[in-house]
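Researcher: I'm preparing a figure for a lab meeting and need a structural model of a single chain. I don't have an experimental structure, so a prediction will have to do for now. The sequence is pasted below. Please return the structure as tokens so I can convert it later.
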Amino acid sequence: MWTYTPPLRDMQFVIEEVLGAPAAWRDMPDFADLDQATARAVLEEAGKFASGVLAPINGTGDLEGCRWQDGEVRTPTGYREAYRAFVEGGWAALSCDPEDGGQGLPALLNAAFNEMIAAANHGWTMYPGLLHGAYDCLRAHASPEIRQRYLGRIASGEWLATMNLTEPQAGSDLAPVRTRAEPAQDGSFRISGSKIFISGGEHDLTDNIVHLVLARLPDAPAGTKGLSLFIAPKLLPDGSRNAIRCDGIEKKMGIKGSATCAISLDQATGWLVGEPHRGLASMFVMMNAARLHVAMQGIGHLETAQRNAHAYAHERVQGRGRVIAEHPAVRRTLWSLRALVEGERVVAYWIAMLLDEAHHHPDTTRRAKAEALVGLLTPMAKAFFTDNGHRGADEALQVWGGYGYVHEYGIEQCVRDSRIAMIYEGTNEIQAIDLLQRKVLDDGAVTLGALLDHLEADAARRADEPALRLFADALHAEVEVVRTATAALLEGRQADPQWPLRIADDYLRGLGFLLLAWAWLRQARAALSHAGSTWHEEKFQSAQFGVQWLLPEAAWRWRRVRAADAVLPVAGFDSVG
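Model: Understood. Here is the structure written out token by token.
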């Protein structure tokens, strides 16, 4: 049946050998005292929490779901106890600043933790999923009074937080947001409006919920430039209930243990966060953190799908007494899932290392370069990893055959739960447009060029080793095709502004495979350092499989990117049949 076993050895291999994170920490004063043994201990305890506390209530929480009555929400059995263990273990404050009660550990360890808890129980993970984003947003933009009142409680997990953007008429496009905020004489605001799809908008895990709300001031200009950000807690500082109500919860395809709420605000009291009419810029701090968190959900689903598929395939006997793992078709599926998740983990953990560098490195130039790379890679990670997480879970279901369609085997829930990650925090199509239009073309491909230079320089290390030639050649080829395709888009988009929009999804996946080619090179290089180790030999085989079997998808993606004259019909949808 469905189980979750934290891939601790795989994580340690990536952190310590593939990426060399402990050496990088020594260059950052905030992490200089963090050693390899401590990092391993953190991961081991995180694994115990994910597998021992969260995983056992995953399937039962899916069946039970949340219950709404008279504006109140009850979470599934075991969720409250799990959340208490989460807070008592200090997991909410893992990478928060010690000044705010946090542990001050690297974002890299927090990313690994997020992978584990999403793999173990995606529905429960939705509740604390926005804690770090809310913490970062308030720390960057809130007044000293608001920071003093809320940061410590959010960092500790005493209070949970939400992000209130979406309205019935305003989803991916926030320009039509109608929620209003009227100034009051005491410096606060009275907020009125309706929000939908609010994850954790109401629950019984904490007594207070800190809502971050986008709304319009009376003098707001039209469009997204007229949005301001407000903090509106469920409980006001005097302990009274704010005028915020949960009007109901959605019946969803997946993550049924997560309360997805419709929220109404009727002259609710709130306070401005950041500058008036600059709310979206303030909220982007929270949204970017959330997108990296969602990227780890994609990896978590892919990881747990491939582990359980591997275990089942080595137990299930079909065809003359052979376990199905011996059949080439099944073996190919298992290797595909493994190579994909192992490559993605390298890329994801590297992005987390760049995030640490952007926030903690003493060299300002290094910080700026790292921050630019994180901005470039965030939309790719969110879209590429979640797309692969859902499609990989769907492919894994095939290993079970008919049993995979039955709830008790677990994989059908994994397929359902993983689908939402492709939609929320900005649909994957929007991530692709953001990547290509804003992060590549509007930038003149400067940051992309820096990334390509870095990958090529990395490929040159130990390039004379015959065992690594396959990987280095594949990476060089991918770098060249990215350069060529991007140059063509830079030159041609003025004559045809729709060209980048037509192929943005293909461009993002092509860039994702470029990074996988680099990741598989790094993995193979690290594995070669352990001659005679069967475990490391399998790591090399996994990387080799990725280059030979998965990387070819990039070729037809780039062919579509370069097809400037490919027709995308406009007409044809006015009638059916």
